[in-house]
Specification:
Helix content is 0%, strand content 49%. By secondary structure, it is an all-beta fold.
C-alpha cells in the first residue's frame, strides 16, 4: 500500500533552519512527482514546492523562493525540504504528497493523489 511519512518538524527560532523528510513506501518513487504543501490554522492549503520524478525540475511558491530547497533521493525513497531563514509565517502543518507523473511538476494540491499525515513546524521567538 502506498504510504508517505513526513518527519523533521518542530519548534525553531525565526531565522533558523529545519530539514523535513518525506519517506515513501509501497511504490517505486521513480515515476512520481512529489510536492510539499502547508496549512496554517484558518488558512487554505498552500503549495510550497515540488520536484519532478527525475529531479530535473522544481517549482517554489514565491513566499519561499530563495529560502527553501527541495531535493530527492529515489534510491532511499525519500524527498527532502530544506528550510532556511524561517519566518513566523512559515508556521504550519507541512504535508508531502505524490503524483504519478513524468515531467514538470505542479504545486496545485488538487493534482496530487497520495498524502502523508503531516508534520508540525512552529517558528517562534
Amino acid at each position: 500500500q502506498l504510504q508517505l511519512v513526513e518527519s523533521g518538524g518542530g519548534l525553531v527560532q525565526p531565522g533558523g533552519s529545519l530539514r523535513l523528510s518525506c519517506a515513501a513506501s509501497g511504490f517505486t518513487l521513480d515515476y512520481y512527482a512529489i510536492g510539499w504543501f502547508r496549512q496554517a490554522p484558518g488558512k487554505e492549503r498552500e503549495g510550497v514546492s515540488c520536484i519532478s520524478s527525475s529531479g530535473g525540475s522544481t517549482n517554489y511558491a514565491d513566499s519561499v523562493k530563495g529560502r527553501f530547497t527541495i531535493s530527492r533521493d529515489n534510491a532511499k525513497k525519500t524527498v527532502y525540504l530544506q528550510k532556511n531563514i524561517l519566518k513566523a509565517e512559515d508556521t504550519a502543518i507541512y504535508y508531502c504528497a505524490a503524483r504519478p507523473r513524468v515531467g514538470p511538476c505542479t504545486i496545485l494540491a488538487g493534482q496530487y493523489n497520495y498524502w502523508g499525515q503531516g508534520t508540525q513546524v512552529t517558528v517562534s521567538s
